[in-house]
Specification:
The complex is a heterodimer of chains A (115) and B (110). Chain A is an all-beta fold and 115 residues long. Chain A has no helices and eleven strands. In chain A, strands 2, 4, 5, 6, 9, 10 and 11 form a seven-stranded mixed beta sheet that branches. A four-stranded antiparallel beta sheet of chain A has the order 1-3-8-7, with no helix packed on it. With 110 residues, chain B is mainly beta. In chain B, the strands form three sheets. In chain B, strands 2, 5, 6, 10, 11 and 12 form a six-stranded mixed beta sheet that branches. In chain B, a hairpin with a 5-residue loop joins strand 7 and strand 8. The chains are: A mainly beta (115), B mainly beta (110).
Chain lengths: 115, 110
């Protein structure tokens, strides 16, 4: 089945530690996205990539980094600079990033907590 | 500024009651609007979308939404809810990127 796989499902981070969240898709989608979901705030865009080897900052990129070396993969690193990393992280993809009529498909999410 | 606002944060209904969830947006460009749903323990999935044409859009599971340009609104409706509709609902606007509302948690009592 085609879809988006996020791993791990749960992740714990120690103070001062960087952690990387994995996102893989086999939908052959060009565009990929990372969102952060906090209670009462909906989803906020962290980074997005419309094509391999290119990505742009979203609304809350500080303390995060991404790479897009392969079409299928868009890993997110939560760095020690992110002071409030505890949240639910969602990865999404769509057929073409510039086309508003293409709905995004979402993964199951990774819940990150601080030890 | 581009924004999406959902007024109802938590809605509790009994089965068979009618549902209307509010969504208002602020944007001056071409409007592409979506409603997504997140059932407990599941991933976010598309309920319905509006791009152009008939302002009354029908989606999955008996949901519909009406785009009212003069009111900058895209409210979600369902005539008779079921317990299985318990979920979190998000309205979203595409402006070159998706902007989500804060979400509405719907709890349907059996």
């Amino acid at each position: 089945d085609g879809g988006i796989t996020q791993s791990p499902k749960y992740l714990f981070r120690k103070e001062g530690q960087n952690v990387t969240l994995s996102c893989e898709q086999n939908l052959n989608h060009d565009a990929m996205y990372w969102y952060r979901q906090d209670p009462g705030q909906g989803l906020r865009l962290i980074y997005y990539s419309q094509i391999v080897n290119d990505f742009q900052k979203g609304d809350i990129a500080e303390g995060y980094s991404v790479s897009r070396e392969k079409k299928e993969s868009f890993p997110l690193t939560v760095t020690s600079a992110q002071k409030n990393p505890t949240a639910f992280y969602l990865c999404a993809s769509s057929i073409a990033g510039g086309a508003g009529n293409q709905p995004q498909h979402f993964g199951d999410g990774t819940r990150l907590s601080i030890l | 500024a581009q924004s999406v606002s959902q007024h109802n944060h938590h809605v509790i209904l009994s089965e068979a009651a009618s549902l209307e969830l509010g969504c208002n947006y602020s944007y001056g460009g071409t409007v592409n609007l979506f409603w997504y749903v997140q059932y407990p323990g599941q991933h976010l999935q598309l309920l319905l979308k509006y791009f152009s044409g008939d302002p009354l859009v029908k989606g999955i599971k008996g949901f519909e939404a009406e785009f009212i340009k003069s009111k900058f609104s895209f409210n979600l409706r369902k005539p008779s809810v079921q317990w299985s509709d318990t979920a979190e609902y998000f309205c979203a606007l595409y402006t070159g990127k998706l902007i989500f509302g804060q979400g509405t948690t719907l709890q349907v009592k059996p």
